[in-house]
Design brief:
Chain lengths: 141, 122
């Protein structure tokens, strides 16, 4: 590719558009490769198993319901010990359901793949891709 | 350890991003800034003055007029420096551009890549 500054304005604009289109196309191909990975397939399978498991659904709902009821106390940092213990018990009961355990593990495995790929991209471009690829910026953007 | 397919796809994606104008401009501006001792000195001065004022405020006191004036002088010098301003503009542009490209990854993946790739605890 010719350096854009050596081109006339019309060619420069065309080169810019071509480079942007190429980057978007490569982004799509990269996303498709991630989707085809065994880790993503495992995550999708774990997600399906979780959504079909009544024990998981009921444990998650029980935890979320109690968490919502105690939201104000949690936000204010004034949750009494008894209720904190109750929430922890509900959370542990949720994580103990095998389909939830499998889902959490599959999510962690795929997150690890995503982080590793982001590190590869970052090394290529010399910019922290993971920290800069969320529009909200996150805590590090 | 990434599979060969994922490693190759990530490298190809990174290489294509390198050619994107926003990324190329950001790298060029960062390099210009890193190679400009005057610009680096102005930023160091600004950070020092900002830190000085912040420390005074954190201690519950008001900064002196002299401290405020020094901070304003540093800010004006930074704003007048083309290398710093070009670096800031390019950084802002790439911070707008990269999320848009990541959306393309997410669209192909079917879920939010940016959230999944974010550092733990972020």
């Amino acid at each position: 590719m010719l350096h854009p500054t050596t081109l006339d304005p019309a060619d420069r604009a065309a080169a810019t558009r071509a480079a942007e289109a190429e980057a978007l196309s490569a982004a799509g191909a990269f996303g498709a490769t991630l989707r085809a990975s065994p880790e993503f397939t495992a995550l999708m399978a774990a997600d399906r198993a979780l959504s079909k498991d009544p024990a998981a659904t009921s444990a998650i709902e029980a935890f979320q319901l109690r968490q919502a009821e105690l939201r104000v106390e949690l936000m204010m940092g004034v949750l009494p010990d008894a209720q904190r213990v109750e929430l922890e018990r509900l959370q542990q009961a949720t994580y103990a359901v095998p389909s939830v355990t499998a889902y959490v593990a599959a999510t962690a495995a795929f997150q690890s793949v995503c982080r590793e790929t982001a590190a590869v991209v970052s090394a290529q471009i010399g910019i922290d891709f993971a920290a800069n690829c969320r529009s909200a910026g996150g805590c590090c953007g | 350890m990434l599979s060969t397919e994922l490693q190759d796809a990530a490298v190809a994606f990174g290489r294509a991003l390198l050619q994107a104008p926003a990324v190329a401009a950001s790298r060029a501006a960062a390099e210009a800034f890193e190679n400009d001792p005057a610009a680096q000195g102005l930023m160091a001065d600004l950070r020092e003055q900002q830190g000085s004022v912040a420390r005074v405020q954190q201690s519950g006191l008001a900064p002196s007029q002299e401290q405020v004036d020094r901070l304003r002088l540093c800010q004006a010098a930074v704003r007048a420096n083309d290398v710093i301003m070009a670096h800031l503009r390019a950084t802002n542009e790439v911070k707008t551009y990269l999320p848009a490209v990541a959306l393309e990854v997410s669209a192909a993946l079917g879920t939010d890549y940016g959230n999944l790739a974010a550092p733990a605890g972020c």
